[in-house]
Design goal:
The protein is of the alpha/beta class. The chain has a single domain, classed as TIM Barrel, CATH 3.20.20.100. The chain contains 13 helices and ten strands. The strands form two sheets. An eight-stranded parallel β-barrel has the order 1-2-3-6-7-8-9-10, surrounded by four helices. It has a two-stranded antiparallel sheet with strand order 4-5. Helix 1 links the parallel strand 1 and strand 2. The radius of gyration is 19 Å and the shape is globular.
């Protein structure tokens, strides 16, 4: 099958805006429209969703805003995820917290997402987590269908190891373009387990969820004083904030990491964008690496 895909990872903005906390932001539809517009003005056009975010409500809130200003749609790259079953008042048929990566569920989940987001197609679908019952042939059947009918343009995964990624890729004609994993100066596991080397080898874009370690970055003094000191020295040298340095540290990696921001405060989003103009030296990058590890490089 001759799929026309972008050969070098996913084409989107260097930072992505995550909407997993959208239901907590307390924005009116019109305020959300303005937030999306200001994000686009700041150069952040990739938006990250999942079916389960906000107890299955975030996609719907976002869709209402898009419906108010349909011209925003073509300026965005919309990502959503599926595969986690979460018991909820919104989904009374789900009786236990588990995974479902069956052909039928993936297709049905995308149909729900398109309806909730009020869009005809999405740029990227990710499998939210690897399942111990993952059947790559069933997933491939769903992906082929969704691509053929024009509902999903590209596909990827989230929280997959290199081996899990390769298993799924072996059944697909189209390349998986994204692996979204947890990465931050406090979370080094994926830097060490081959995930990022694998991404570079296969032209996969790594996206970083929780680039500020779920807010722990802002409590660093109590969690890891050594890392706090190292990052503070680098921040002072660049006249930057700790969160800008955390992003610049991720952006410096040769795999092309795309951090996913989680704030609903536009000032924080605009501040984050300034990290793109900060280039850390090797000395600065390794100072943060060593401080996070707690020991020198071998």
């Amino acid at each position: 099958m001759n799929h026309q895909y972008h050969p070098l990872g996913f084409t989107g903005s260097r930072l992505a805006q995550g909407y997993w906390r959208l239901a907590e932001w307390g924005m009116s539809d019109q305020e959300l429209v303005r937030f999306i517009e200001q994000g686009i003005e700041a150069g952040i056009t990739t938006v990250d969703h999942a079916d389960i975010y906000g107890d299955y409500l975030c996609e719907t809130l976002f869709g209402k805003a898009l419906a108010l200003k349909p011209s925003l749609r073509d300026k965005l790259q919309v990502i959503t995820k599926c595969g986690i079953m979460l018991p909820s008042k919104q989904r009374p048929e789900i009786t236990s917290h588990r995974y479902d990566q069956s052909t039928g569920h993936i297709i049905q989940s995308v149909d729900h997402s398109l309806s909730n987001l009020q869009v005809e197609s999405i740029e990227m679908l990710l499998l939210h987590r690897p399942s111990p019952l993952m059947d790559p042939d069933h997933i491939a059947e769903a992906f082929e269908h969704l691509y053929t009918v024009g509902k999903v343009k590209h596909f990827g995964v989230s929280n997959f190891s290199a081996q899990q990624f390769d298993l799924l890729q072996s059944r697909l004609d189209m390349p998986l373009l994204v692996n979204q994993v947890e990465l931050s100066p406090l979370e080094l596991k994926r830097f060490k387990d081959g995930t990022l080397e694998h991404a570079q080898q296969h032209a996969v874009t790594p996206m970083a969820w929780s680039p500020f370690a779920g807010g722990d970055l802002f409590k660093l003094e109590g969690i890891n004083p050594t890392l706090h000191q190292a990052m503070s020295v680098v921040a002072e040298a660049h006249q930057a904030s700790l969160d800008q340095i955390a992003l610049a540290w991720l952006l410096r990696h040769p795999s092309g990491i795309v951090p996913v921001l989680g704030s609903g405060q536009i000032e924080r989003v605009q501040s984050a964008q300034k990290a793109l103009s900060i280039t850390l030296t090797d000395d600065e990058w390794f100072a943060i690496w060593v401080a996070s590890q707690g020991h020198p490089v071998p």
